[in-house]
Task: structure prediction
Amino acid sequence: VQLAESGGGVVQPGGSLRLSCVGSGFAFGNMDLSWLRRAPGKGLEWLSVINTGSDSRSYAESVKGRFIISRDNEENTLFLHMNNLRPEDTAVYYCAEFRGVSGSMYNGYTGQGTQVTVSS
Result:
């Protein structure tokens, strides 16, 4: 299983970003997928999950109403649309196969990630 995140950058508070995660080496369309993040000095935080058919999505309270998870199975790509960004959203963002809603379940299962910095 290989997942490669991209799309991070520096954005002002209130701004938006769209992260992408391209999968390879496995049946992308058969896997429930999650986004997570690790803020400076903190552990992994689970953010969201989407099922294979995109008809079920869940979010952590910290991002509910601001972030939207989506996927394109034909392009083997997972997305995270992030709106109304806050300085506390600054973190490295990761995608992974869904393992549960606790970030600790993903230790050792994340890749390089993509850095998001929210700052004025």
User: Anything to note?
Assistant: The two ends are 37 Å apart (CA to CA). The mean pLDDT is 96. The CA atoms of residues 12 and 120 lie 5 Å apart.
